[in-house]
Write a structure and sequence with these properties.
Elements: H1 2-25, H2 29-39, H3 46-55, H4 58-66, H5 80-83, H6 91-107, H7 111-121, H8 129-147, H9 153-177
Helix pairs in contact: 1-2, 1-3, 8-9
């Protein structure tokens, strides 16, 4: 059990640290792939990693890794994309996200239960939620294709096109919902 906890925390730390490093690398895709190999995550998880590092301060990340369920296990990496759909720009939104994370741990909710709870409560008012769902679905499709041995240079081109589309959508939504999202908080 203790070994599994360390493994789960290690995955979470790798994802966060990869995101922090991505923010320094810029848009060099070759270095992204090298980073993914070095830290042991799929290259398709790098965008999630980057957003994780943008939305969570080191203190908030430390809080997330300290939280444990009744059985002693930390939150798994699969919860991160759901947490990234929650509003986070204002201090009270960060506090609500923190309280929701604690509730996830106390209630012992599965990923599907968390998704349902977010929908039921209307917590997913983050203007980029739809974009994130599209991005995660595209990455999931590419992962499944790669695992099935269907990877080709064409799928890499699809990923680049999908990333471009997602960036355009994010910029448009940011302009519509919050002018502050365009610029320092969002990488183009």
């Amino acid at each position: 059990m203790r070994h599994d906890n360390r493994k789960q925390l290690s995955k979470l730390e790798n994802l966060y640290n990869a995101g922090m490093e991505m923010r320094k690398l810029g848009r060099n895709r070759k270095r992204w792939v090298e980073l993914a190999k070095r830290v042991g995550i799929r290259h398709t998880q790098l965008r999630v990693a980057e957003e994780f590092a943008i939305q969570y301060s080191p203190e908030e990340f430390a809080e997330l890794t300290r939280q444990r369920r009744f059985d002693g296990t930390p939150l798994d990496i699969e919860y991160v994309p759901l947490l990234l759909t929650l509003p986070w720009l204002k201090e009270h939104q960060r506090l609500l996200r923190s309280l929701f994370q604690q509730e996830i741990v106390i209630q012992g909710w599965s990923v599907n239960e968390v998704r349902s709870e977010i929908e039921r409560r209307g917590l997913n008012v983050n203007p980029n939620k739809v974009v994130w769902e599209i991005l995660i679905e595209l990455y999931g499709l590419l992962d499944r294709a790669e695992e099935a041995g269907m990877y080709s240079p064409y799928s890499a081109e699809v990923l680049v096109a999908a990333n471009h589309l997602v960036n355009c959508l994010r910029q448009d939504m940011a302009r519509i919902h919050s002018p502050r999202l365009v610029g320092a908080n969002w990488r183009k």
